[in-house]
Design goal:
Protocatechuate 3,4-Dioxygenase, subunit A; five-stranded mixed β-sheet; four-stranded mixed β-sheet; 7 helices; binds benzoic acid; binds fe (iii) ion
């Protein structure tokens, strides 16, 4: 009978069963699990028809907000904590911890050489980041690629300010040297609000959540025979480390950007003193047969 528990169970069973012939077993598992969990949510919370229509309109608006430089679905996954959950459950341990990709890696980083500056605006808080890439056992990785992106001192990525920032500002794709090292000049990034002018902003507003992320620099590190690592380093003395809007802070990724006053060291790094220096190791995990699936 319509509306009864048995009728509801029969709908769930039929929807799960409709995917039984999906040839790819993993796809079958994912689709049947999705139906089971979605139906469980509906059964538990019993959305009204207007609430369901609101949800459909909301997801429609999320899709309509997406374009080549704006990824509202990633943002939604981020503020719901799903991106961070997927990252964390996929970690195997043994290397540097991962964290979210975020929506601002939608353009290719320009190729740069060690020592280059990624600050094309000449900002006034000079900073040097020095990275050593190793395999999980500590062996330095020569020729690894280190893809970096960050916002300005004012808290904006280049793609958010096409009239103010040149494309590629705050971005660089660097190869490591024969000791696994690379360094670059930049500015200290600011904390910033994630974009709130779309449906994700409506959600944060309705739930009285703030939109801020603590200051950070993004990395994707890749090397032959290793699992790619997507991570950040967070600036240790900034705000929002304990309330990141996308739940992405891990203690091990919080880094001291030490102030350096030494003129010789400044000359060595081609900056003026005082400057801030972050020296980090990034360890990536060797690929396993499971990764080849
Ligand atoms: C970012 O760090 O670029 C970011 C991550 C998640 C949501 C918004 C921005
Ligand atoms: Fe970011």
């Amino acid at each position: 009978m319509p509306g009864t528990n048995e009728a509801a169970q029969a709908i769930t069973a039929a929807a799960v069963d409709s995917f039984r012939d999906t040839p790819d077993p993993r796809l079958r598992e994912l689709l049947q699990g999705l139906v089971r969990h979605l139906h469980g949510y509906v059964r538990e919370l019993r959305p009204t028809i207007p609430e369901w229509e609101y949800a459909v309109d909301y997801l429609t608006a999320v899709g309509q907000k997406c374009d080549p430089t704006r990824q509202e679905f990633i943002l939604l996954s981020d503020v719901l904590g799903v991106s961070m959950l997927v990252e964390t459950l996929n970690e195997q341990g043994g290397g540097t911890e991962s964290t979210v990709l975020g929506p601002f890696h939608m353009v290719e980083s320009p190729q740069r050489a060690s020592g280059d500056s990624i600050d094309l605006l000449g900002g006034d808080k000079p900073c040097v980041v020095s990275v050593r890439v190793t395999s999980a056992d500590g062996t330095p990785l020569t020729g690894a690629s280190v893809d970096v992106w960050q916002c300005t001192e004012d808290g904006f990525y280049d793609v958010q300010q096409p009239d103010v920032q040149p494309p590629g500002n705050g971005r660089g794709l660097f190869p490591t040297d024969d000791e696994g090292r690379v360094w670059f000049r930049t500015v200290i990034p600011s904390h910033y609000p994630i974009p709130t002018d779309g449906p994700v902003g409506v959600l944060l507003d309705a739930s009285e959540r703030h939109p801020y992320r603590p200051a950070h620099i993004h990395f994707i590190v890749e090397a032959d025979g290793h699992r790619p690592l997507t991570t950040h380093i967070f600036v240790a003395d900034g705000p929002y480390l304990d309330s990141d809007a996308v739940f992405a802070v891990k203690e091990s990724l919080v880094v001291d950007f030490a102030q350096v006053d030494d003129e010789d060291k400044a000359r060595q790094y081609r900056v003026t003193a005082p400057f801030r220096l972050a020296e980090i190791d990034i360890a990536i995990e060797p690929e396993t047969p499971k990764d080849a699936r």
